[in-house]
């Protein structure tokens, strides 16, 4: 059985929503449904990630999104930094994971480590 979606509370809903809109755009992930208090991000109408205001915020999470290619990983990283995220690993190969693991990491406004990764065949 596969993973369907994840959701969590954020400190500042509007700031986090705007951050994720910019961060996930290079991965073709955008808002598929939204209210005044939460937003659901996904692709092709299927939700992958929801964020909302209120409620207890979790400790730092690690979220990894699959990218279509290296260019999308690079664009994700640049978009995250431009949106105010902190660098947590520039785009590049991570051979300690596996030889074709190309990824980048950005820390979001709530301290979560968000990754874009493409699994290339070595």
TrEMBL record:
Boundaries of every VOC domain copy: 2-119
Q: Which SUPFAM superfamilies would you find in this protein's record? A: Glyoxalase/Bleomycin resistance protein/Dihydroxybiphenyl dioxygenase
Stored InterPro entries: Glyas_Bleomycin-R_OHBP_Dase (IPR029068), Glyas_Fos-R_dOase_dom (IPR004360), VOC_core (IPR037523)
Q: Which domain of life is it from?
A: Bacteria
Annotated PROSITE patterns: VOC (PS51819)
* One Pfam family per UniProt: Glyoxalase
Tell me what this protein is called.
Catechol 2,3-dioxygenase-like lactoylglutathione lyase family enzyme
Organism for this UniProt entry: Kaistia geumhonensis
């Amino acid at each position: 059985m596969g993973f369907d979606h994840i959701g969590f509370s954020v400190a500042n809903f509007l700031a986090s929503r705007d951050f994720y809109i910019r961060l996930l755009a290079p991965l073709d992930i955008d808002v598929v449904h939204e209210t005044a208090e939460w937003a659901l991000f996904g692709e092709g109408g299927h939700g992958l990630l929801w964020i909302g205001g209120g409620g207890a915020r979790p400790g730092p999470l690690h979220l990894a999104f699959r990218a279509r290619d290296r260019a999308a990983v690079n664009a994700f990283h640049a978009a995250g930094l431009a949106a105010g995220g902190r660098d947590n690993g520039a785009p590049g190969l991570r051979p300690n994971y596996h030889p074709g693991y190309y990824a980048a990491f950005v820390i979001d406004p709530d301290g979560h480590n968000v990754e874009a990764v493409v699994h290339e065949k070595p």
